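agent> step 3/5: call structure_predict on target 'Phosphomannomutase' (Pycnococcus provasolii).
agent> reason: downstream docking stage needs a structural representation; sequence fetched in step 2, passing through unchanged.
tool.input:
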Amino acid sequence: MAPTRENTLVLFDVDGTLTVPRKEADPAMITYLAELRKKVTIGIVGGSDLGKQQEQLGANMLQNFDYVFSENGLDAYKDGVSFHQNSFKDYLGEEKLQKFINFCLGYMSKLELPCKRGTFVEFRKGMLNISPVGRACSQSERDAYEEFDLANNIRKDFVSALEKEFNPDYGLKFSIGGQISFDVFPVGWDKTYCLQHIKDSGYEEIHFFGDKTFSGGNDFEIYNDERTVGHSVKTWTDTVEICKSIWG
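tool.output (status=ok):
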């Protein structure tokens, strides 16, 4: 059966898939998505909150996508209207939450990095985002940290320490994504969380495009989920090329 807006849904990660990480989408990407939307239903699913997604994809983002799944779908929108919200804070409870954050801050205080800035722990609706270098770093500092991280396994070792300290009691999952941070969320609250919202929507095919599809990456679970057709990309231009090869 030919793909239509009624039977085909295409979901996109944001950073590295629709945009250069943490930068605004190229106008050519936005133009192509508008054309693609005439042929299939489109949506985004990312770990960032709605505000950060709008910074990258434009203030009209909610009107430009059929589905917007912020924070992996814990904050969910269809046709620009909010229809689902959930909270990591309520799941974990304040006592456990503070114990976890205190451990993270203690661990990061001992790291020697190319630089350290601010916002090392960012509290989001559905997760914590942990950044050893600090989310307040500049783009050049991001790039320097990413190179250092890849050579020294800073985030991978950090995640290993957290898994040893808190699991299985806390029931948490850790996902490395982007250049400078990793996400912490309850098991099952990865990007596959959003799929529950569309299970009865009648789509015969659900495609997913992401760049962090490797084991431990924040696209891994949904990319490999039996409910999706996964596409792995390295840049937003890869995304456009693959989409054009499938849908034109």
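agent> step 4/5: record observation. The chain has a mean pLDDT of 95.
agent> proceeding.
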